[in-house]
Amino acid sequence: MKAQLHLAITNQFEAIHAMSEAVEAFCQKQGMDQHSLMSLNLAMVEWVSNIIKYSTLPHGSHDIEVKVALRDDAIETIIRDAGVAFDPTDAPEPDLESDIKDRPIGGLGIYIIRNLVDAFQYTRHDGRNQIIMRKALRSSEADKPTA
Fold first, then answer.
1. Partner of 80 for a Cys bridge, out of 1, 33, 61, 65, CB 3.0 to 4.6 A?
2. Domains of the chain, each with CATH number or no CATH
3. pLDDT tens across 80-119, in order?
């Protein structure tokens, strides 16, 4: 049996801290290095924050399902919610060249997530958004000597 963590959290910002702590503890038990762990955890916090901020249905509260599992030499996370459909893979790349005053607001969170994890995919099935993120247990950054 593979190591797994299953969480159901409410779409409230207060739930993010407990999720983050549980994911951190799970990933540490699997031997994930600190750099990879921080990257994955930040990506998950950003995505769940987006769900809470933008995906709320008219009826309000809904659960967010979080699954974390060890798959080969990586941690795979699956985050599902029944909120408003949104495919982040269709989001355009943000303009990083223009003066910051001339750039539109938004879009950097998805860009940051894509750059923090090794794989990022979206599907919508049975009225639920599903994001799968993968991050290797050991990053190349962890092998670099510190100054």
1. 65
2. 4-138 (3.30.565.10)
3. 999 888 898 887 777 777 787 777 776 788 999 999 999 9
